[in-house]
Design goal:
The structure holds two protein chains of two kinds.
Chain A: H1 2-12, E1 18-19, E2 31-35, H2 40-49, E3 53-62, H3 63-66, E4 68-76, E5 84-91, E6 95-97, H4 104-117, E7 120-122, H5 152-155
Parallel strand pairs in A: 2-5, 6-7
Antiparallel strand pairs in A: 1-2, 3-4, 4-5
Chain B: H1 13-20, H2 27-39, H3 51-59, E1 82-86, H4 94-103, E2 109-113, H5 115-119, E3 143-145, H6 152-167
Parallel strand pairs in B: 1-2, 2-3
Classes of the chains: A alpha/beta, B mainly alpha.
The structure holds iron/sulfur cluster.
Iron/sulfur cluster binds next to helix 5 of chain B.
């Protein structure tokens, strides 16, 4: 128990972090937080030092409603269920600090979020596309993404 | 039989050969080679998605592709002579598959296994961004095996069809 309260105390020390009162059981999380993007590395370090892993990182296209992208981080650990979801709201077109130095898994997750949704991560060691074809110039999971050009190989006639 | 017109007097050797065909016919030897090729197809060890699981099952003891001489999966493209395209070809993988195909020495054959390699299968829709819509968009395919995934029996049937094709002396891809 002391571990968990240590985490809570460390998180409480981060000024821009807001924690939801009672997380909905359906969310599958024991803690839901939002934080300013300048503090995300600090949040990552707190979780890292408390023995958590970065379980998931993705982004949401909320440009229509809020002119912003949401970057969502999920931290978990082995043992008693204690999953935390941290949300960072980023104005469209701006970058988020990278967690790749703290968590090895962040490297590919951030590349995926960049590839699929065009979110940039400051300080990422190798922010290039990871899933789409070489030379692609689109971000297919954006809400306003229309029709992809034919695959390069097909366009070249094999 | 059709009469071939005599070649022009100033024809080069190369033109003569093209017009008259090879001077020596090795049909008997070719046929013999084809019999051997058909019965020792060496597939390239690689799978692309879920269809590869069925391909592995076809290679394992219950179905045992080795009964037909085609169970010797080669880890190097330079030793393989049949490419079993088992799975979804993502756009990123497309150039890699093409490079592997180019590395295989002739004579070589390709089997498109499953809906994905036939035309994109379940992932095909107008304007999709993820896949190559069919293996034949990038390499020449000899046998198509429908299914999602095809059962091992279907793959074995495909291999037998390929054997027939080879024994019949169909042209090689170069
Ligand atoms: S055809 Fe079906 S089983 Fe085969 S790779 Fe495609 S989705 Fe998977």
């Amino acid at each position: 128990m002391s571990e968990a309260s240590g985490l809570a105390a460390a998180l409480a020390g981060i000024a821009s972090l807001k924690t939801a009162e009672a997380p909905d059981a359906k969310s599958g999380c024991q803690g839901l937080h939002t934080v300013g993007r300048e503090a995300i590395v600090e949040v990552g370090r707190v979780f890292r030092e408390a023995g958590y892993m970065l379980e998931m990182l993705t982004a949401l296209d909320m440009r229509a409603a809020e002119q912003a992208m949401h970057v969502v981080y999920q931290f978990n650990r082995f043992g008693a269920p204690d999953r935390h979801r941290v949300r960072v709201v980023v104005p469209a077109g701006e970058a988020v600090p990278s967690l790749a130095d703290l968590f090895g898994s962040a490297n590919w997750y951030e590349r995926e979020a960049f590839d699929m949704l065009g979110v940039r991560f400051d300080g990422h060691p190798y922010l290039v596309r990871i899933l789409t074809e070489e030379g692609a110039d689109y971000h297919p999971l954006l809400k306003d993404f229309g029709v992809a050009p034919a695959a390069a190989e097909e366009a070249a006639g094999g | 039989m059709k009469e071939t017109p005599p070649p022009p007097a100033n024809a080069t050797t190369e033109e003569l050969l093209t017009q008259l065909g090879p001077l020596v016919h090795l049909d008997v030897l070719e046929n013999l080679l084809n019999q051997a090729r058909a019965r020792s197809l060496w597939p390239l060890t690689f799978g692309l998605a879920c269809c590869a699981i069925e391909m592995m099952a076809a290679g394992a003891s219950r179905f045992d592709m080795d009964r037909f001489g085609s169970g010797v999966f080669r880890p190097s493209a330079r030793q393989a002579d049949v490419m079993i395209l088992a799975g979804t070809i993502s756009r990123k993988m497309g150039p890699v598959v093409k490079a592997l195909w180019d590395q295989m020495p002739s004579p070589k054959w390709a089997i498109a296994m499953g809906g994905c390699t036939i035309d994109g299968g379940p992932f095909k829709y107008p304007g999709q961004y993820a896949i190559v819509e069919g293996a034949d968009k990038i390499i020449p395919v000899d046998v198509y095996i429908p299914g999602c995934p095809p059962r091992p029996e279907a793959l074995i049937n495909g291999l037998l069809m390929l054997e027939q094709k080879i024994k019949a002396g169909k042209k090689f891809h170069v």
